[in-house]
């Protein structure tokens, strides 16, 4: 592999992680909220393992679903 190929791979990698980081929290929420009720259920959160494993700690009103405000607590960290 030439140096140039290697460098362009790194640039591509950096670029795609930047795109991922700038994806808005609202977009992420919409992707996870499959039934579009405005809340993330436990099963909807399973698509994001990090969120799923801490679901209870972010569910501050203990209604077993995450509102956008609760999700925002997670996503903005
Ligand atoms: Ca939902
Ligand atoms: Ca909640």
From TrEMBL:
What InterPro entries does the annotation carry? EF-hand-dom_pair (IPR011992), EF_Hand_1_Ca_BS (IPR018247), EF_hand_dom (IPR002048)
Residues in the signal sequence: 1-21
In terms of domain of life, where is this protein from?
Answer: Bacteria
Residues in coiled coil: none
Q: Where is the EF-hand domain?
A: 46-77
A Gene Ontology molecular-function term? calcium ion binding
Its keywords, alphabetically, are: Signal
Task: Please give the name of this protein.
Answer: EF hand
| Originating organism | Pseudoalteromonas lipolytica
């Amino acid at each position: 592999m030439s140096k140039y190929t290697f460098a362009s791979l790194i640039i591509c990698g950096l670029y795609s992680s930047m795109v991922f980081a700038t994806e808005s929290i609202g977009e992420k929420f919409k992707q996870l909220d499959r039934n579009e009720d405005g809340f993330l259920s436990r099963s909807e959160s399973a698509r994001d393992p990090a969120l799923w494993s801490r679901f209870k700690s972010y569910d501050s009103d203990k209604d077993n679903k995450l509102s956008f405000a609760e999700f925002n607590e997670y996503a903005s960290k």
